[in-house]
Specification:
By secondary structure, this protein is α/β, with parallel strands linked by helices. It contains five helices and five strands. β2 and β3 form a beta hairpin. It starts with a strand and ends with a helix.
């Protein structure tokens, strides 16, 4: 019997946090849902992080994923924005983990290479390939939701390899 696995991909961000849920069955991938969490920009940082936690917790309860994947972020905009993004990323990592969901991290270049075939692909290329891999995906204009689906796709492609490495 082929194992069905539900994966939530998370593209962390404090302004826009993309999420995407897929299911795998053998080599077959299917789209479940996606969207973007947009915490208030007017509250203080702690309130915004709490809002992000509540949003991700709600998604985990709603979609009951078996595994989660979060993108490792690379930021060169400045120390303050890097620190805030790191805090949002921390929430994205710990929320599913605190709910008993195994969490994997994937580098942005690995995500792009897994989905597009090139580690330095443009956002438009990622969106186009996500639409080809998951034709029912409805992410609209949300690059964050498309990125989250790409993270989930990457995790689906590499999860068996990771399990083999972990058991060795």
């Amino acid at each position: 019997m082929i194992e069905r696995v539900r994966i939530i991909g998370i593209d962390p961000g404090l302004r826009r946090c993309g999420w995407g849920v897929i299911e795998t069955s053998g080599n077959r991938l299917s789209y479940v849902a996606c969207g973007t969490l947009t915490p208030s920009t007017s509250g203080d940082l702690a309130d915004r992080l709490a809002e992000l936690f509540a949003g991700i917790s709600g998604l985990v309860r709603q979609f009951t994923p078996d595994e989660a994947a979060v993108e490792e972020t690379f930021v060169n905009r400045g120390a303050r924005s890097a620190l805030q993004l790191g805090q949002a990323r921390g929430v994205a990592l710990m929320t599913p983990a605190s709910m008993g969901i195994p969490v994997a991290e994937n580098a942005a270049n690995l995500v792009k290479k897994s989905v597009v075939g090139a580690g330095h692909a443009e956002k438009e290329q990622v969106q186009a390939m996500v639409k080809i891999i998951l034709p029912l995906a409805d992410f609209g204009r949300s690059a964050d939701a498309a990125d989250a689906l790409a993270i989930a796709i990457c995790h689906a492609h590499h999860r068996t390899h990771r399990k083999l490495l972990a058991s060795a």
